[in-house]
Specification:
Elements: E1 9-10, E2 16-20, E3 23-28, E4 31-36, E5 41-45, E6 49-54, H1 59-80, E7 83-90, E8 95-99, E9 102-106, E10 113-116, E11 121-126, E12 131-136, H2 139-150, E13 162-165
Antiparallel strand pairs: 1-6, 2-3, 3-4, 5-6, 7-12, 7-13, 8-9, 9-10, 11-12
Length: 179
Amino acid sequence: MSRVGKLPIAVPAGVKVSMAERAVTVVGPKGNLTKSFHDGITIALADDAVTVTRSSNTPYYRALHGLTRALINNMVIGVTKGYVKELELVGVGYRGEVKGKHLMLYVGYSHPVLVKAPEGVTITFEPKGGLITVTGIDKELVGQTADRIRNVRKPEPYKGKGIKYKDEHIRRKAGKTAA
């Protein structure tokens, strides 16, 4: 049995989990999320816990077992606490601003780069420290949005300029040596 998949998911007070067909809906104080799952995975709803079981012991279903449990757990955490990803803008003259729900980045290109925030994700920018904060209830969507922002100008290894995650360590390289 999967170590992750066999653990029951505790449903906190104020969160309601329901199931229709193969789709699981989680409703909480921050919003609601719906996701559909594979037919070979059985999801059982109890009063204060959700359990996930698999129909077969093949490697495919064993992998789906843990994945399904983790995705439902992420949905429960998302509607209660939410998810936050922080990025830093590092570089002389690099700046950004929030226009409506979109982020405008000026990071050394000949033109500003507009990053559109998808529905359910909020982007804020603090000009003082160059801190970009991406928040939302869907872990996957928050991570994808943060990655799209980082890919605008990935940090380079010589000076460390670019957009990096706040807790990311950039491995620095030595430059050319004078002869």
